[in-house]
Amino acid sequence: MVSKVVNVGIASHGELKERALAIARGDRRRGRREPHIWFTSIESFAKVLSEPNRALLRIIDERQPQSLKELEDLTGRKVSNLSRTLKTMSRYGLVSLETGHRGTVRPKVLVREVRVDLELVG
Q1: Which domains does the chain have, with CATH numbers?
Q2: Residue 65: predicted pLDDT
Q3: Residue 95, burial from CB neighbour count under 10 angstroms (0-12, 13-18, 19+)
Q4: What angle do CA 104, 56, 38 make, to 5 degrees?
Q5: Alpha helices for the chain (secondary structure H)
Q6: From CA 48, how far away is CA 39, in angstroms rounded?
Q7: Mean pLDDT score, 11-33
């Protein structure tokens, strides 16, 4: 299922750990509008969602390649590079990597838009 918009948050590892512990203790609940995807820095956010990687997502969404080899042919990026990039995006919930016929891996875009939640002071 493709989500149209996902809220993305940026917080330090310590802040994320404290947030998770507070939720686990029952001291707080995740709000409806809180981010679903968290990055530990602006740099990691920028790296994962760089212009080349956003272009990759557009190609996957528009062309719906049936394998990483087909995606390599469409993008000119090596399968090893695509695999590494897509695994990272998969960990963040941006894409899924479905196993297809004869072990091929088919990438699928799960998120079309992100909104960033970044606390500047607090």
Answers
A1: 3-118 (1.10.10.10)
A2: 96
A3: buried
A4: 95
A5: 13-25, 42-48, 51-63, 68-75, 79-91
A6: 10
A7: 91
Tokens of 72: 């390599």
CB 95 within 8 A of CB 110: yes
Structure tokens at 53: 């990687």
Half-sphere exposure for 77 (CA within 13 Å, toward CB): 17
Residue 32 has pLDDT above 90, yes or no: no
Integer Rg of the chain from CA? 16
Q: What is the pLDDT of residues 58-95, one digit of tens each?
A: 999 999 999 999 999 999 999 999 999 999 999 999 99
Q: pTM for the full model?
A: 0.86
